[in-house]
Amino acid sequence: MTTARESTENQLPPLEEMPIQKHLVVLRKHLLKIIIALVGLFLCLLPFANQTYQLLSKPLRAQLPASSSMIATDVAATFLAPFKLNLFVSLMLIMPFILYQIWTFIRPALYDKERNLTFPLMAGSISLFYSGIAFAYFIVLPSILHFFISVAPESVAPMTDINSYLTFCLKLFLVFGLTFEIPIITLLLILAGIVTTESLVQKRRFIIVGCFFVAMFATPPDAISMIMLAVPMWLLFEIGLFIGKMLEKSKS
C-alpha cells in the first residue's frame, strides 16, 4: 500500500536526463556570460575608480581633523586600492545577474513547488544583502570612525593608509551583508524541516547570546560596533521566525 507522499512523487514528471558533458557545456555558457558581464561592467566603472574611492572614504574624511589626511604607505597603493574597490563594486552590482545565471542552470532540476520558492528567496536574499551593506556604510561606519578618532590621544594625528581603510570597509560590508541574510537562513532551515519555530522559540535566549558572541569576533574591538551588529542579528532572526510561523500556519 503506497502512502500519499509516494503517490504524489510518482505523479511528478521525471527530470530531464542529461549526460555530464552536456551539463558542463551548459555550465560553461553560464560562467562565460558571468565573466563577460563582470569584465564589461568593471571596464565601464574603471574610469570612475578614484571617484568611487572618494565616496568610500567620505565617512573617514568627515571625521579627520583639518590637519590630517589619508596616506599611502605603498608606491602602488594609489592605483591598487581604487582598482580593488572597483572590482568589489562591479561584483556587488552584478550579483543579481550572477544569481539569475545560477538559477537558470539549476531550474531544470527543480520541481514546480521548489521553483516557486527559490526565486522569491533569491530576490529577498539580494535585497537583504544590499540592505546590510547600506546599513554598514551609512550608519555603522560613521559611528565606528567617530568613536576611534574621538578616543585618539591629542598628541597623535590620525592618518589612515588607504589600503588598510579599504580592507576594513570591505570586511565590514561583507559581515553586515551576510548578517542580513539571517531571515533567509532561518526560513530555509524551517522549510527544510531541520528546525521548527517552537524549537527556535525555546532556544531564543541562547540564540541572542550567540548573536553577541559572533558580533564580538566579527567586528572591531569596541562595544559600539558589537552592539550595532548583535542587535540587528537578533531582530533579523525574529523577523525570520515570524515569517516562519506564518508559513507553518498556512500549511496547517
UniProtKB/TrEMBL annotation:
It is found in: Cell membrane; Membrane. GO terms for molecular function: proton motive force dependent protein transmembrane transporter activity. Keywords: Cell membrane, Membrane, Protein transport, Translocation, Transmembrane, Transmembrane helix, Transport. Pfam families: TatC (PF00902). It is a multi-pass membrane protein. The chain crosses the membrane at residues 31-49, 87-106, 127-152, 172-194, 206-221. One of its GO terms (biological process) is intracellular protein transmembrane transport. Belongs to the TatC family. The Tat system comprises two distinct complexes: a TatABC complex, containing multiple copies of TatA, TatB and TatC subunits, and a separate TatA complex, containing only TatA subunits. Substrates initially bind to the TatABC complex, which probably triggers association of the separate TatA complex to form the active translocon. Part of the twin-arginine translocation (Tat) system that transports large folded proteins containing a characteristic twin-arginine motif in their signal peptide across membranes. Together with TatB, TatC is part of a receptor directly interacting with Tat signal peptides. This is Sec-independent protein translocase protein TatC. It comes from Acinetobacter nectaris CIP 110549.
